[in-house]
Design a protein that fits this description.
Blueprint (H helix, E strand, L loop, with lengths): L1 E3 L2 E3 L4 H9 L5 E3 L7 H5 L2 H8 L3 E4 L16 E4 H9 L6 E5 L1 H4 L23 E5 L4 E5 L6 E8 L2 E6 L42 E7 L4 E4 L4 E6 L3 E8 L4 H24 L1 H21 L2
Parallel strand pairs: 1-11, 2-3
Antiparallel strand pairs: 3-12, 4-5, 6-7, 7-14, 8-13, 9-12, 9-14, 10-11, 10-13
């Protein structure tokens, strides 16, 4: 893989952001975007536990999905308080994603402001909290609704691997899914599961490799592939914004309402045939990328 660090600024002029990052869909990290938010100093595990510790939440482990796995199927359930106690004790490969904590604790909305000086179109009903224990992994994927995202890391460090959407064939994207067939677990370490013999086109993929520190806000353009590993137990919040163009909105709607439902139906009715059909297409696409070099 051909990787480079992401551009990073303490602050950024709105016009520079729009011209150099938002419009051309290039990721960037802004380190001080949230320093004035009350959330920056107020949000911690004890605060969340006091507010929503009794709420039951879905948990996800580090096992990659297979031919039989429905999209976003939880692997376990605990109360948020039980989960916090578990990940505080040390490495725990369990994470929570797409948890709308704000439905349960609306007062949290007052702890941050929407950065509309940088980007419009925020879906204000759905700010989302993401949490993970040290060692938990969010496997390589892109967000199905094709929104632009501001992802702020509040606690703990997270290592991030990202690729533009156009690299999808080199990443062995499964048809009708937003997932890669390859396993990128610990991609930066000697014990990496990256299998370049099976997935040789990965060597051609051009992307970004960096660490999100507490307080960092990542602008992740629509459709960007991302793989995240929690180096420490931590949590982050994503603010999503629809693409301004009609075509972008339609593509997101198709992914949510068409593509996902078709894939779910086929996984339920003929999972083995469906997986083999997709696998054949994945390797055919990768072979075309290799042949073009």
């Amino acid at each position: 893989m051909q990787l480079k660090p992401v551009a990073t600024f303490d602050t950024i002029d709105p016009e520079v952001f729009k011209k150099d990052y938002y419009q051309p869909c290039v990721p960037v990290v802004i380190k001080h975007l949230t320093k004035e938010w009350p959330a920056y100093s107020k949000w911690n595990w004890d605060y969340f536990k006091a507010l929503v510790g009794d709420k039951k939440v879905p948990l996800y482990n580090n096992v990659k999905s297979d031919a039989y796995t429905p999209i976003n199927k939880a692997d376990d359930y605990k109360t948020f308080g039980e989960y916090i106690d578990m990940i505080r004790q040390g490495p725990a490969g369990w994470r929570i994603f797409l948890f709308n904590i704000f439905d349960h604790a609306p007062s949290l909305i007052d702890d941050f402001t929407w950065p509309e000086h940088l980007m419009k179109g925020f879906v204000k009903k759905y700010p989302m909290l993401f949490t993970g224990g040290a060692g938990s992994i969010t496997h390589m994927h892109y967000d199905i609704d094709l929104s632009h995202i501001f992802h702020t890391q509040f606690a703990g460090r997270k290592r991030v691997l990202m690729f533009p959407h156009k690299e999808q064939r080199k990443l062995y994207r499964k048809p009708f899914e937003v997932l890669s067939m390859a396993d990128f677990s610990n991609y930066y370490a000697q014990e990496s599961k990256l299998n370049f013999e099976k997935f040789p086109a990965l060597k051609l993929a051009e992307g970004f490799d960096f660490i999100l520190e507490p307080g960092d806000t990542l602008f992740m353009p629509a459709g960007y592939w991302h793989h995240m590993e929690y180096l420490e137990s931590g949590f982050a919040m994503s603010l999503r914004a629809l693409q301004p163009s009609l075509s972008g909105k339609l593509k997101g709607a198709w992914s949510l309402l068409g593509m996902r439902n078709i894939d779910t139906l086929m996984k339920k009715t003929m999972p083995n045939w469906w997986y083999k059909r997709k696998e054949k297409k994945v390797f055919s696409n990768a072979a075309k990328e290799l042949a073009a070099v």
